[in-house]
Write a structure and sequence with these properties.
The complex is a heterodimer of chains A (345) and B (549). With 345 residues, chain A is of the alpha/beta class. Chain A is built from nine helices and 19 strands. Chain A starts with 5 loop residues before the first strand and ends with a helix. The model of chain B has no long low-confidence stretch (mean pLDDT 87). Classes of the chains: A alpha/beta (345), B alpha+beta (549). The complex binds zinc ion (ZN) (2 copies).
């Protein structure tokens, strides 16, 4: 009896529909959950993804990132081989989607949902997650330990603003991934009533403009030139995480190194990276949201793609769910690879 | 409490002294009494909490969470208090009325040992995660806040535009929650006056001299004396308004340590001492010979001081400065003038408890350098192990509290060095809690089955962040066994990592397997190149005990 979804060296593969999901190497047909570089790679024969994800891939990898593109409309069913697939909002970044696959799995009609990366916290820059009822739920576990409980994003933004007030003569460099996090920080700053321009490292510019073109309210942003840096005391500057401690940062007036990431919850992690103002803002589900989502899908089986799989698998088993880790290497490095890519952009 | 925790958290991440000061001053301005006073007490070490053992904290979290999830989380985070603070499950509704710091202090002070688990559980339920972290760090005694007592007092002084020394002067008379102190800096109250007849005076500290300093400094402008390996103390005596004698012994930070040395306080209550403030080194002397620091350690951190202890470890203050005498403040006089008054005054005191730190005659820096490297030839040979180097003081220097530039210098002796082999590693604390950064090392000795390694010390620093990463990797790749948090690494003649260890001294120690204990060991070099079999032997180390060179 054949499986609806299997694991190949390229990543998750659906034999009945002959397609891969978020493959790590070039394949004939790829379904892509979202635009982060560890999920969305260039060089596939055909790509099926949401319109925003296709646009983001074109911005990051160039228009020639694939030979043929097909747009997935959220909620619409698409027949692929002997399967029916559909895309549903994942709440992770603009355009991010979970992919539902319906077909025969070990002889029974089954629905598998591949979540990609997802979150449930407030994010004015993208559609919120819609849990999809399914039999098998394939989840990430980036923050799959009960020590990870992300605070309210607005609380972290308020801490950033309080620091700007206490240190008005210092520039606040906020490290943020250039796809998703940077735009979300800008948008929540606006919700908090912050009306100064938000300054941008050169690497943040293109995607910021793309979000603005899709109607996300990020307010006034300004690209900074080398000459401006010394005059930005008291301002908020969004930059790739790798930039907060490099020579570029040294030109700002007495910079405060801030970093917006879920990892900032662990002190040792924050300190190792030389962060002075850790802001716990994440685009991944925390422990409570992972477990809530798994229960809401009503699934009887959980597969964990990457992250802290062991704890989540243990938890699922205590809930009488079948669960297994897939140990997929290569995911969860979007942050590193994107940072490296941004720094050279 | 949550706000205090936010402050501690922010301070821990703020690298600059100035930034820490600003954060702390802002907190003191915005926080009402008595909370800010208790915060100041916590930061200056003036608060004693009911200590809870880590085992109790483990029990409490065990009652609330799945043990497998706790174990995985603890392994990931690497710090018990932080893990528990982060994963403590919230019960709805309890966070609406978080306890203030004052409340926490009072609750802990008024509950007995049996109540403690319930009390801590309740506090954990009512605090947010930073509050829980701060609470657990406070009650397990592991709070390293990255802020000195001096900095906290400086922040208080800043509020009212005062000098931090103004706070130091009145500090010994103040008690938590310091309401009159804050009233004064806020401008709504009088300056609290110095209470008692034996007040502390903030001490003057020295800079480590650097080689290039000698080019610009002229030997004839300076005087020198030995740098003794004891404890810097200030011995103060006076007469109260009611005629009773008062005597106090202070540490260099102004902490009253009189209770640990009752024999000195008793002598100083003699009217012979009048009103005086002596700056000097507390030492243990036996038959005129100064004992190494290890002997003095027997007198520290004792709950009770027995008559036998006083007899077996006789204390003496080796005086090197006089700050006040007969009601006169001498601090504005030059070092030479103070010194001549000190010499006359000490001559009148009981010599078995107070003597003079002798001056070292020298005419050139070369001469002084010779004395420093070979005290045996310049001082009574038997005192050499208790000498750490030399102190160099400008002859015309007035006594300035703090660490003024260009007046006093210390010139320490060069450290000892040996090559040892890495044996065990343990994860560090704080910033290093996810890395193996505490290293136990050993040297060779002959055992029943040929040469074996015997541990001789432990070092936590002396390497760069880059080197630490490499060490951490080395430990993980060469682990052959584990005992709890300790990893045993490969260490034999053919294979092992040689560490060059620098240390300040060595003393016999029956508590250690090797029979010796090192002072201030640190890693001076990683010898990736050196075969483990070529590391030093215990005999080499033993030869270092006793007078040097
Ligand atoms: Zn992602
Ligand atoms: Zn990802």
């Amino acid at each position: 009896m054949s499986a609806l979804l299997t694991l190949t060296p390229e990543g998750l593969y659906c034999p009945a529909g002959d397609f891969h999901i978020d493959p790590m190497r070039p394949v004939a047909r790829a379904l892509i959950t979202h635009g982060h570089s560890d999920h969305a790679r260039a060089g596939h024969g055909a790509v099926l993804a949401t319109e925003e994800t296709l646009a983001i891939m074109a911005i990051r990898c160039g228009e020639a990132f694939t030979r043929s593109r097909q747009t997935a409309v959220l909620g619409q069913k698409i027949a692929l081989g002997e399967t029916i697939v559909s895309f549903h909002p994942a709440g992770h970044v603009l355009g991010s989607a979970q992919i539902s696959i319906e077909g025969k799995h070990e002889g029974r009609l089954t629905r598998i949902v591949v979540s990609g990366d997802y979150k449930r916290q407030h994010d004015p820059t993208c559609l919120p997650l819609e849990p999809v009822r399914c039999d098998i739920f394939i989840t990430e576990a980036t923050f799959g330990l009960p020590v990870f409980r992300h605070p309210d994003t607005r609380h972290e933004i308020d801490r950033l603003l309080a620091s700007c007030k206490l240190f008005p003569e210092r520039a606040h460099l906020v490290g943020a991934y250039s796809l998703g996090k940077a735009q979300r920080m800008a948008a929540v700053l606006r919700e908090a009533g912050y009306d100064r321009p938000v300054f941008l490292h050169g690497a943040m510019e293109k995607l910021m403009a793309f979000y603005a073109s899709r109607g996300v309210d990020i307010g006034e942003t300004r690209k900074i030139s080398a000459a401006d840096r010394s005059g930005l005391a008291g301002e908020i500057i969004l930059c790739p995480p790798s930039a907060i401690n490099d020579a570029w940062a040294g030109k700002f007036p007495d910079p405060v190194a801030a970093f917006a990431s879920g990892w900032m919850r662990i002190r040792a992690r924050a300190r190792q990276q030389g962060v002075e103002l850790p802001l716990v803002v994440s685009d991944h589900a925390d422990w409570d949201d992972l477990t809530t989502t798994i229960l809401e899908t009503g699934c009887s089986e959980v597969w964990v793609t990457h992250g802290e799989a062991e704890a989540l698998v243990h938890w699922a088993q205590t809930r009488q769910l079948r669960a297994k880790p897939l140990h997929m290497l290569g995911y969860g490095e979007e942050e590193d690879s994107a940072a490296a890519e941004d720094a050279t952009a | 409490m949550n706000r205090f925790a936010e402050l501690l958290d922010a301070i821990a991440f703020e690298p600059s002294r100035n930034g820490k000061l600003r954060l702390t001053a802002a907190y003191f301005r915005a926080t009402p009494d008595p909370d800010r006073g208790y915060a100041l007490a916590a930061m200056t070490g003036a608060l004693s909490f009911k200590y809870a053992k880590p085992a109790l904290i483990r029990t409490l979290i065990g009652e609330r969470t799945d043990p497998v999830l706790f174990a995985l989380s603890y392994d990931y985070v690497g710090d018990l208090s932080e893990t528990v603070a982060l994963m403590w499950p919230a019960l709805p509704g309890l966070r609406d009325h978080p306890p203030s710091l004052g409340e926490v202090v009072n609750i802990l002070a008024s509950s007995g040992k049996i109540q403690l688990p319930g009390v801590i559980t309740n506090l954990l339920d009512r605090l947010d995660e930073k509050g829980r972290w701060a609470l657990l760090k406070l009650i397990t005694g592991g709070l390293r806040i990255g802020l000195s007592a001096r900095l906290a007092k400086t922040a208080v002084a800043q509020i009212g535009g005062h000098h931090p020394n103004d706070i130091e002067e009145i500090w010994p008379g103040l008690t938590p929650p310091y309401e009159e102190l804050f009233a004064w800096v806020d401008g709504s109250g009088e300056k609290p006056h110095i209470t008692g007849a034996a007040p502390f005076r903030p001490v003057m500290l020295s800079h480590a001299i650097e080689d290039r300093d000698f080019e610009s400094l002229s030997a004839k402008d300076f005087r020198a004396e030995w740098k003794w390996d004891g404890i810097r103390v200030q011995a103060v005596a006076g007469t109260q308004e009611d005629g009773l004698r008062s005597a106090r012994l202070y540490s260099r930070t102004g902490e009253d340590i009189s209770a640990a040395f009752p024999e000195l306080a008793e002598v100083m209550r003699d009217p012979l001492f009048g009103q005086c403030a002596i700056d000097g080194e507390l030492l243990i002397l036996r038959e005129g010979k100064v004992e190494p620091f290890g002997a003095l350690q027997q007198r520290l951190n004792r709950k009770t001081v027995t008559a036998k202890l006083i007899l077996d470890f006789p204390t003496r203050i080796r005086a090197y400065d006089l700050l006040a005498l007969g009601g006169e403040d001498l601090r504005a006089l030059s070092f030479l003038e103070r010194r001549s008054r000190l010499e006359r005054f000490i001559a009148s005191l009981p010599p078995e408890r107070f003597d003079l730190s002798p001056m070292l005659p020298f005419e050139s820096w070369e001469q002084l350098a010779a004395a420093r490297t070979s005290p045996v030839e310049f001082a009574a040979a038997e005192n050499a192990p208790a000498i750490e180097g030399v102190m160099i003081k400008r002859a015309d220097s007035v006594y300035v509290p703090g660490r003024p530039k260009g007046l006093w210098y210390k010139w320490k002796r060069d450290p000892f060095n040996i090559d040892a082999v890495l044996m065990y590693a343990q994860r560090g604390h704080g910033k290093r809690s996810s890395l193996y950064s505490d290293f136990t090392f050993g040297v060779w000795r002959s055992g029943a089955a040929g040469d074996e390694l015997v541990p001789v010390g432990k070092a936590y620093f002396g390497f760069t962040d880059e080197e630490l990463k490499r060490l951490d990797k080395y430990v993980r790749e060469n682990t052959i066994d584990r005992f709890g948090p300790v990893r045993v690494v490969t260490a034999n003649k053919a294979q092992g990592l040689v560490l060059e260890i620098a240390f300040e001294g060595l003393q016999p120690s029956p508590r250690h397997k090797s029979g010796v204990a090192m002072r201030f060991p640190r890693i001076s070099r990683l010898r990736w190149d050196k075969p483990a079999g070529d590391a030093d032997r215990i005999e080499t180390l033993m030869a270092l005990i006793g007078p040097r060179r």
